[in-house]
User: What shape does this take?
Amino acid sequence: MVKDLFSKIYKNKGPLGKWASLAEGYFVFPKLEGPISNRMKFNGKEVITWSVNDYLGLAAHPEIRNVDEQAAKKFGSAYPMGARMMSGHTKLHEELETKLADFVGKDSSYVLNFGYQGILSTIDSLVSKDDVIVYDVDSHACIVDGVRLHLGKRFTFKHNDVDSLEKNLNRAIKVSSQTGGGILVISEGVFGMRGEQGKLKEIARLKKKYGFRFLVDDAHGFGTLGKNGSGTGDEQGIQNEIDVYFATFAKSMASTGAFIAGDTEIIDYLRYNMRSQMFAKSLQSQLVVGLIKRLEVIKKCPELKERLWENVNFLQNGLKENGFDIGNTMSCVTPVYLKGSIPEAMTLVKDLRENYAIFCSIVVYPVIPKGLILLRLIPTASHIRDDIEITLKAFSEIRNKLDKGFYKTE
Assistant: This one.
């Protein structure tokens, strides 16, 4: 008798799904309501919001909201219909691509309809079964899933560990010398969980020695780092060493979609070979128009990035002065590490939301080691000094409660 495909699902909901009955609607799949801002509604109550990646505050920017509204009236949500190669290509897409390439200092760019499937499909298109991928072990799930599609060899190197990278590059060279393939190295500009910048400069120095090509996912660096927000590669002075630059519109641009940028010949190849773009509907024109406006605002309003970093520095310095462990963040992403169990973490976060009106993301095992609680804060240009001072005071109080066993459950 054939085993029921669903039998494993009935028995095992997965590492996160097993908590669904306790967590859903509050700790996972929570409903934040109201305009995207520093303060939103959760369960009908106003909370200081630290979990929205609207870094530059563009979601509520009046010029952008007006352009979004007019574009929606003009184009609706359907136009253009079809994939870019067939019937979904427009002058607006071309205009956005030209401006994005210029902004990040590359010859050419290609707009993608989604970020997750975009980076996944980029990886899939760049490598054949004879090629080898070497990537940072802490890479985002979209990179991991892209690597899973690869039919050839792949190696991970320890997070931001250049010695480990070299060891694995030597392994990759041995394989590629047998298969006749090349090597692709993948890192992130900013690692979204810990906030650390990838060691792009150190990796780039190894290109000539090992002959690899370099792909960087800069989802959290685009708009927040580098001159006028042009990214982590620019911040570290090696943007020209990045062969394929990827960034999403879902964070600093407060929209949907993504783009890749690089030499024209490489981008043209990807345009004709990325399955997620060849066989999927084009990004809607109403979004493209809004993205053109967003890029214009980022370039003409440097004070947004300045305000963002004033808030980042005030928050992170305040946390460190109060003895909190925020790891090695070198970006806006602000992790706060505490010691405690998963039940303690859930009780602590409920206290933060219900009694202190503070909403931030919580991360526990298996994403981080057992016995640790990570509270992840995303400061934005929309936050005000009062938000930060209230949060610093609240965090000191909840840490004292945690240390005294207040959050322990039977």
Remarks:
- The longest helix spans residues 302-321.
- The chain has two domains: 31-55+302-403, 62-300.
